[in-house]
UniProtKB/TrEMBL annotation:
It comes from the Bacteria. It comes from Tessaracoccus defluvii. CDD domains: M18_DAP. This is M18 family aminopeptidase. Gene3D superfamilies: Aminopeptidase i, Domain 2, Zn peptidases.
Length: 420
């Protein structure tokens, strides 16, 4: 694990910059895990003996584990779950739209971004191109697109009530006369022939690099902190994790921002499949596997909200979490977060063991909160789950903000949880 908050934030900046999409994030996770000595397994083949340090990658998701050779009667799974995707705009297939002489890019809103934060930013296109042989090729451009805002001179009410149509207001400009088809440009970057392309999964991303800001250098501004911050924190804790008595699991899912009900989302079978295959490797039958689930726990790590100084009334009047005061313990009576008293105790023990602070988070009753993979994992597996995460300002903006200490605090608490 990185030895200081500053080293951690520098590494996080590099990780975010290298991960414009979930597919790039999964590729980065795989490269880092291999470098740390983890063996990649093929999910299409039997896992065999369960012990060791291994991982699998599926599209934009990664599941890794550190497992003992044999289990004690009290062993369980210790799971940290995160997600690799972030709100954005997905590129539509087909011909590029044209309007009033401009060549544009057809896009569809992905998840729930703060759409206005994407206006007038230098945007790139990134993702994967799949060729007809089924191979995936990662690609990313520099700044080639922009969603332009209408000038104030042409809309004097813009500062009063800006309303953006999700179709007509969000299509970025690419060029006046595009001399080379965009797909040919992307294929050139990926080193493939455009004639071999079957389909693509491409999204827009903000090309501005992450940065430490503030008079005291106490803030970190970046795109995609939700939820690459948690994914990176888990990675740094997991890279050096030694084998213990329990089976340590790191699950970085995709598609959380659109509901998780996909093959690589938390609502799909990916994690359950890995857990059951590992249990079978230990010789456990159905009864033994379910008993192991009952001895297990999960930390669902996703970002939360610090109090907004311009809108404190949108927060609970008695709950005002701040940056650099530790990750949040997220609580909701209606189970939008999975935290209960048992899960909270697990998290507090981990923070105490790591020597890091933590803060409770509850919502204003009149402002319903979002949700996470936590309730989905708890429902699907029946495993005790606690929701936590670093606090942000401007969540789902093209550029979010956190404290420089909180990602490191989160990583240390995760490491202590896995060690037990």
């Amino acid at each position: 694990m990185l030895d200081s908050a500053q080293n951690h934030i520098d590494d996080l900046a590099d990780f975010v910059a290298a991960s414009p999409t979930s597919y790039h994030a999964a590729d980065q996770l795989a490269a880092r895990l291999k470098q740390a000595g983890f063996e990649q397994v093929d999910p299409r083949r039997p896992f065999g003996e369960p012990g060791g340090r291994r991982f699998l990658i599926r599209d934009g998701a990664v599941v890794a584990w550190v497992a003992p050779e044999t289990l004690t009667e009290e062993a369980g799974f210790r799971i940290v779950g995160t997600h690799t995707d972030s709100p954005s705009f997905k590129v539509k297939p087909g011909d590029l739209p044209r309007s009033a002489g401009w060549t544009q890019l057809g896009v569809e809103v992905y998840g729930g971004p703060l759409i206005n934060s994407w206006l007038d930013r230098d945007l790139g296109v990134a993702g994967r191109i799949v060729t007809r042989d089924g191979a995936s090729h990662l690609v990313r451009t520099g700044a080639i697109a922009r969603i332009p805002q209408l000038a104030i001179h042409l809309d004097r009410t813009a500062n009063d009530a800006l309303k953006l149509d999700r179709q007509t207001s969000t299509q970025p400009i690419l060029a006046i006369d595009l001399r080379q088809p965009l797909i040919e440009h992307l294929c050139g970057l990926a080193g493939i022939d455009a004639a071999d392309v079957a389909f693509h999964d491409l999204t827009l991303f903000d090309t501005q690099l992450p940065a430490v800001i503030g008079v005291e250098g106490e803030f970190f501004a970046s795109g995609r902190l939700d939820n690459l911050l948690s994914t990176h924190a888990a990675l740094t804790a997991f890279e050096s994790l030694e084998v213990g008595g329990d089976v340590a699991i790191f699950a970085a899912f995709d598609h959380e921002e659109v509901g998780s009900d996909t093959t690589t989302g938390a609502g799909g079978p990916l994690l359950q499949d890995v857990l059951e295959r590992l249990a079978a490797g230990y010789g456990l039958d159905l009864d033994g596997t379910r008993a192991m689930f009952a001895r297990s726990s999960c930390v669902s790590a996703d970002c939360g909200h610090v109090v907004h100084p311009n809108y404190p009334g949108h927060h609970d009047p008695m709950n005002k979490p701040l940056p650099n005061r530790g990750p949040l313990l997220k609580i909701n009576a209606n189970q939008r977060y999975a935290t209960d008293a048992v899960g909270a105790a697990i998290w507090l023990r981990a923070c105490d063991a790591a020597g890091v602070p933590t803060q409770p988070f509850v919502s204003n009753n009149a402002v319903p909160c979002g949700s996470t993979i936590g309730p989905i994992t708890a429902t699907r597996l029946g495993i005790t789950t606690v929701d936590v995460g670093a606090g942000l300002l401007s969540m789902h903006s093209a550029r979010e903000l956190c404290g420089v200490d909180d990602p490191w605090f989160l990583a240390r608490a995760m490491g202590a949880y896995w060690i037990g």
